[in-house]
Amino acid sequence: MSPDLTAAIAAAYAQRWSEALELADRAAAAGDADARAQLAVLGGDAASVDTNALLTPPPLQLVSDGASIGISRGFATPAMCAWLIDRARSRLTPSMVNDSTTGEMRQHPMRTAYTCAFGPGERDLVIAVLQARAVTLTHLPLINHEAPNIISYEPGQQFGLHVDYLDPQNPLFARELAALGQRITTVVTYLNDDFDDGPTQFPALKLNVRGAIGDAIVWSNVRADGSPDPNTVHAGMPPTRGRKWVLSQWLRNRAQPYN
């Protein structure tokens, strides 16, 4: 990665988007193929990209009266979705769960899909745009975001029933809650649709939601008073044909130390 592209990504995460695109232009003009590819996904060069449109997602459409769950249709463009799948494909590792009986991360039969996280040094302009769009949708600042995850489900793979919040009554989560805060919002974006079945299931609400390419399902894991909402128990259901890809973004109620 060229110094200009590195600086462009840093400027994007500092919300200096005009500067970010201009630096990416300069990197592309100097022969940085990655900069050219990222600009193409975002719609062109600095002169042709409408930054306001780039960072503004479609509004949420509520789909449940029993919990705060909505869909942003077209949250990610098809080009962004294809880019994320391509970036993640060679980096997938077995998924882990936060074990409520030990407080440790480990593999578990309830979660059989594969995943890869994009930490601060592994992000790019495309990921930066989708994090910025999540900020607009959720009104939670970028510094509160966990590392974005790509999750891949082959036929039969799943993420069984679980909640995304940390149970404050479980003493094993006390240290994490004190250090990192509560995971209050989840954004799951469907990156493809060439598979059968595989919805996100909310059994307490009798709700199955499956997005088209680029659609984001957004829900609050807590009620208005900040207490956990058990109605948000959900599962990533397995595809029966084809491979399902999603982007998961988890947002906390306090700043994350690695951002």
Topology (SSEs and partners):
Blueprint: H1 3-13, H2 17-29, H3 33-42, H4 51-55, E1 61-62, E2 69-72, H5 78-88, E3 93-94, E4 97-98, E5 105-106, E6 114-117, H6 125-138, E7 149-153, E8 159-162, H7 174-180, E9 183-190, E10 196-197, E11 200-202, E12 207-209, E13 216-220, E14 234-236, E15 239-241, E16 244-252
Antiparallel strand pairs: 1-2, 2-13, 3-6, 4-5, 6-7, 7-16, 8-14, 9-13, 9-16, 10-15, 11-12, 11-14
Question: How does this structure look, described?
Answer:
With 259 residues, the protein is α+β, with helices and mostly antiparallel strands. The chain has two domains: 1-52, no CATH class; 56-252, q2cbj1_9rhob like domain (Jelly Rolls). The chain is built from seven helices and 16 strands. The protein has helices spanning 3-13, 17-29, 33-42, 51-55, 78-88, 125-138, 174-180, and strands at residues 61-62, 69-72, 93-94, 97-98, 105-106, 114-117, 149-153, 159-162, 183-190, 196-197, 200-202, 207-209, 216-220, 234-236, 239-241, 244-252. The chain has an eight-stranded antiparallel sheet with strand order 1-2-13-9-16-7-6-3, covered by helices on one side. The protein has a four-stranded antiparallel sheet with strand order 8-14-11-12, with no helix packed on it. α1 packs parallel to α6 (125-138) and α2 packs across α3 (33-42). The longest helix is centred in the middle third of the chain and has 14 residues, at 125-138. The chain is globular and about 55 Å long.
